[in-house]
Design brief:
The complex is a heterodimer. By secondary structure, chain A is mostly helical. Chain A has helices at 2-10, 14-30, 37-62, 70-87, 92-115, 121-140, 152-156, 165-183, 185-195, 197-202, 207-233, 244-254, 266-285, 290-330, 339-345; strands at residues 145-146, 159-160, 163-164, 235-236. Chain A is built from 15 helices and four strands. In chain A, a hairpin with a 2-residue loop joins β2 and β3. Chain B is an alpha/beta fold. In chain B, the strands form two sheets. Chain B has a six-stranded mixed β-sheet with strand order 6-7-8-3-9-10, with helices on both faces. Chain B is globular. The chains are: A mainly alpha, B alpha/beta.
Chain lengths: 348, 261
């Protein structure tokens, strides 16, 4: 029982799920408007873009790299999509496909220089963060493109059998990502590269290639996020996706992904994304000024990373408190349990 | 034990810039024997092994595998020949479980690139059982939860699972306690008994004298000689490690080079 209790605390999906539940409960109790169906739909639509970009962030983080350029890539995708649909007259499906290919291509650039080029991805994608955003502004001269196309709605924003399409995309993409990470050799190699790079290399895994592919996937998913955002607002703007890369990374980290690589669970990332969006939504409902929303989001990210670092100690502390509580209950009865031995067992 | 070498290196030289790591080294190992490779720090043991693994290219010299010349450009080439190397400390991914580590980089897949877990689990269990590794509770537990001896056992089991003919162990007992060292040495003996050629790199002469059939001594990038475990003493080997004179250069006979009894 004690073992199982500790295991459950360490499990990757349970923790993030409980955090999400706690945050949602707090919001539901503190304002009536949270549970209104219109608000829940809003949450669902807002979470879709964060969640999809967070898949890419998780996969990149699993290989012990980081992609800071995803928010800017969302903006670049958005203005280019709006431009080629509205001004060049391309059909929406073709334009969307081109955008996804472009996202993959720019991801390839990120991945190539971060792995084969040996430039730390933190630095390189910090560069492309600025470059992609700059290109987006360059493209439109800084002004948004409104009323892009009525074609966007039925493919990327409308409903399918009563379900909002962004939600359908989230479900499909998470299912694919999960199958990829758990059931394919490449998925396993992503975990291996993040877990022990030298071991992976000596086992004949092409580490640079695995990392590059992770960035390609992340780039393509950022483009999908940009397309969905463009469809939701029916406009393309170089200002979209500011700070989205941080929300995506925070989703992964709240979901228990380790920034050192090799640890993480894709569904836990989804719960992490929900947590962040629910907090933001709740702050909006309480009419908290945007400055304080930023501060709150930053604090959540800092705490999540802290918990990532201190997870072992935290679990041990909880086990000890739980045991102390039980010992107090048992006080009436004689006990032979030796606490020193228990302490050794509490963590492998 | 067969009498022709499974792996034979002739006149291997390797330099890194101005540093001459290996000079005209000969080395051989036969199927069914444990060949220890010893030498002080910087003697060139690891360099020699990395030449066999294809991680370093040889500047000069020849590699014969089973009597025919072979070239090795990387871990995959070595694996194709049946050479497996267990690296010190670097061998396993802590975040993956035993099965995942055993198949790292060579996962079984079906036509749809889906991992085939059950054959991998079955083969893992079978391999561990054939090596009498019985202390691992579950092959689905992460390697991080295993003891040092168990981890080394997994690393060795991984090396032999691929129908390998030659297993090279780089300091397999360096980080282990007494009983765990015994476990691993037993495993090493068993490999040789099963007909594999084993190369054991170690600093620990006690370990070497417990399991090795023959001992090759390197000093300052040159080979000093090959000693039969049965006919040599620790003193003689220590002397060769610290003050041995390379036979090829000085032409001094009597160190036993190339003359296994």
């Amino acid at each position: 029982m004690r073992e199982r209790f500790a295991d459950a605390l360490r499990s990757q999906v349970v923790g993030p799920f409980l955090i999400m539940l706690a945050v949602a409960t707090a919001m539901a109790l503190s304002t009536d408007r949270f549970l209104l169906s219109q608000n829940l739909k809003n949450v669902g639509l807002q979470v879709a873009i964060v969640a999809i970009v967070a898949i890419g962030a998780t996969i990149v983080i699993l290989t012990a790299q980081i992609d800071l350029s995803s928010g800017s890539l969302v903006a670049l995708t958005s203005v280019l999509l709006a431009d080629i649909v509205k001004n060049a007259g391309l059909s929406v499906p073709l334009a969307a496909l081109l955008m996804i290919l472009m996202g993959a291509g720019l991801g390839l650039v990120n991945g190539f220089f971060s792995s084969y080029g040996r430039i730390p991805s933190f630095i390189f994608t910090l560069g492309t963060l600025a470059i992609f955003r700059g290109l987006a502004f360059q493209q439109t001269g800084g002004t948004p493109i409104f009323s892009v196309s009525p074609q966007l709605d039925p493919i990327f924003y409308g409903e399918l059998g009563g379900l909002p399409l962004p939600f359908v995309y989230v479900v499909v993409l998470y299912a694919l990502a999960w199958a990829f990470l758990i059931y394919t050799p490449r998925g396993r190699q992503i975990y291996a590269v993040g877990g022990n790079e030298s071991a992976a290399r000596l086992s004949g895994i092409n580490v640079n290639r695995v990392r590059t592919e992770a960035f390609v996937i992340a780039g393509a998913l950022s483009a999908v996020g940009g397309i969905l955002l463009t469809a939701r607002l029916d406009s393309g703007s170089p200002n979209y996706g500011q700070g989205l890369e941080l929300m995506a990374i925070a989703s992964a980290v709240i979901g228990g992904a380790s920034l050192f690589g090799g640890q993480g669970n894709i569904f836990a990332t989804l719960f992490g994304a929900f947590t962040i969006v629910i907090v933001q939504n709740g702050l909006n409902l309480h009419a908290v000024p945007s400055a304080w929303q930023n501060i709150t989001l930053g604090a959540i990210i800092a705490v999540a990373v802290g918990v990532d670092m201190w997870r072992g100690e935290f679990a041990r502390l909880l086990v000890r408190l739980w045991r102390r509580g039980r010992a107090a209950q048992d006080e009436a009865r004689p006990t032979t349990s030796t606490s020193a031995e228990d302490d050794v067992q509490s963590r492998p | 034990m067969s009498d022709h070498p499974l792996l034979e290196l002739r006149g291997v030289s390797k330099s890194f810039g101005s540093v001459q790591a290996l000079t005209d080294v000969d080395f051989e190992v036969r199927a069914g024997e444990v060949m220890a490779l010893v030498g002080d720090n910087g003697a060139g043991k690891s360099t020699l092994i990395k030449c066999v693994a294809g991680i370093h290219g040889m500047d000069d010299g020849q590699l014969l595998f089973d009597g025919s010349p072979a070239t090795i450009h990387g871990p995959k080439d070595a694996a194709k020949l049946g050479i497996e190397i267990v690296y010190q400390d670097l061998a396993l991914c802590d975040n993956l479980d035993v099965v995942q580590n055993m198949y790292l980089g060579r996962e079984e897949r079906n036509w749809f690139h889906r991992l085939r877990e059950s054959p991998m689990e079955a083969k893992t269990s079978e391999t561990l059982r054939s090596l009498a590794v019985t202390t691992i509770r579950s092959i689905r537990q992460p390697v991080a939860t295993l003891s040092g001896g168990q981890r080394q056992s997994v690393a060795v089991a991984r090396a032999v699972m691929w129908n390998s003919q030659l297993v090279i162990l780089d300091e397999p007992t360096a980080a282990l306690g007494v009983s765990q060292t015994e476990q691993v040495l037993e495993l090493v003996k068993r490999l040789a008994e099963q007909g594999l050629a084993v190369v054991l790199i170690s600093h620990n002469l006690h370990d070497i004298f417990e399991v090795a059939t023959r001992i090759t001594v390197l000093r300052l990038g040159r080979d000093i000689g090959v000693y039969e475990r049965a006919t040599t003493t620790q003193e003689e080997v220590v002397h060769a490690i610290t003050a041995g004179i390379p036979t090829k250069v000085a032409g001094i006979a009597g160190t036993g080079n190339g003359a296994p009894a």
